[in-house]
Amino acid sequence: MATETDGEIELEYELDERPPLPKSILLGLQHVAVMIVPATAVAYIVGGAVGGVDVAYIVQMVLLFSGLATVVQAYTAGPVGAKLPIVMGTSFTFVGAATTIGVDYGLGAVLGAILVTGFTVEGLIGWQFKRIKPFFPPLVTGLVVVIIGLYLIPVAIDYAAGGVGASDYGAPYNLGLAALVLGVALVLNLFADGVARLLSILAGITVGYGTAVALGYVDFSAVSAAAWVALPQPGKFSLSFEPVPIVTFAFLFLVSAMETVGDMSSVTAAEGRNPTDDEFRGGLFTDGLLSSLGSMFGAFPVTSFSQNAGIINFTGVMSRHVVGIAGGMLVVLGLSPKVGAAVTTIPQAVFGGAVLLMAGMVAASGFRLIMLHTDLDRRNMVIVAASLGLGLGVTTRPEALAELPGAAETFFSEPVIMTALTALVLNTIVPGENSPLFDADSEDQSAGTPTVETPTDD
């Protein structure tokens, strides 16, 4: 069992350790409980906007391929997989474009674009990651982790208020449920020991859900209407291939790759290190390959889930076997619509309290990654300021880009893109120790002090 040394957090279970099976199941359930609503929300949002599609089936496929991708990340399949505790699911990164393209071109164009660009973009990045790794030092990847956590906070607040568009958005009982979950999780994590601390998030969600049921806020009608078992159907949706959707999703998979790099760095930051080349490559391969395969069955892209990276840092449980169990649970949910329907009856406000905590932990782990491995001199502080300023700027005021061409607006309104590209470009072109174009001698220049040779006698 690890102790807190050289920047590591205190780990209850290290990467290859196996907690007892009962505890592993509960810890895996905690991962599933935190990610299942946001993972399936993309299917509900896009399917509802497009109309005329089997949304329940899409939800089922999202859960199935999220589970398969999670298992592959934990245990690998040849070169695919990172052998890290990375929970996979469908990201909100794809919601806007998938909705617009689905309405304008049809769902088949969305799935066709995913099929073409998923492994093409992320597979290429993963394959060549060793070459481009010098361009992604902890300063850059840490900033990606920070912005992922920061832009998840408004999403968490929306959940806590009842969900965007809900008729009871901001109702006191929604805020009360979220506060209850947050309070239980904080108290157990900070003041309890053993299993109670490790399962603090699951305990908070359980208490919040039980309270919601007791108060009559839970609707179980979807559970009785769902089938017990339903198998995936390849080719259920006819695929089409349109240039604009393909180019758009190519950009979005670039964002997904950046998020995965950031999430993997957040996970390994618990050990005080960055991921290895093989871990980066395998993780990116999984993102791209499983996304492309899933599209043939009707699933949206799968990528790493930031809030689950936050769970690892929050609980100190880094065991990949726990995450492998979580992946198996997601596979079962994907094959059983009735079980999945039961899980999705949990009110969004209950998840809001948990996601808020996780988003903050993700951002905090990014800051720790930067501080452990980067000298925060004038050069690097300016890069941090510019990157976070632009990333948060387009998040809080997206209307500022409304006059740009559609493709440019879609691209530059993504906070991860703005933060990552700013950090990447500045870190590359400004002389300094972290720059891949300049040697370490430029460190003194970046700090603003010239190098002076001291004369010596021959």
From TrEMBL:
Membrane topology: Multi-pass membrane protein
Biased composition (Polar residues): 445-458
Record carries keyword ATP-binding: no
Name of one Pfam family that matches: Xan_ur_permease
Signal peptide positions (record): none
GO molecular function: xanthine transmembrane transporter activity
Sections of the chain in a coiled coil: none
Compartment annotation: Cell membrane
Keywords: Cell membrane, Membrane, Transmembrane, Transmembrane helix, Transport
Top-level taxon in the UniProt lineage: Archaea
Region (Disordered): 436-458
InterPro entries to which the protein is assigned, alphabetical: NCS2 (IPR006043), Xan_ur_permease (IPR006042)
Transmembrane segments: 25-45, 57-77, 84-103, 139-161, 173-191, 198-217, 237-255, 322-343, 349-371
A GO cellular-component term linked to this record: plasma membrane
Family classification: Belongs to the nucleobase:cation symporter-2 (NCS2) (TC 2.A.40) family.
Protein name, per record: Nucleobase:cation symporter-2, NCS2 family
Lineage: Archaea, Methanobacteriati, Methanobacteriota, Stenosarchaea group, Halobacteria
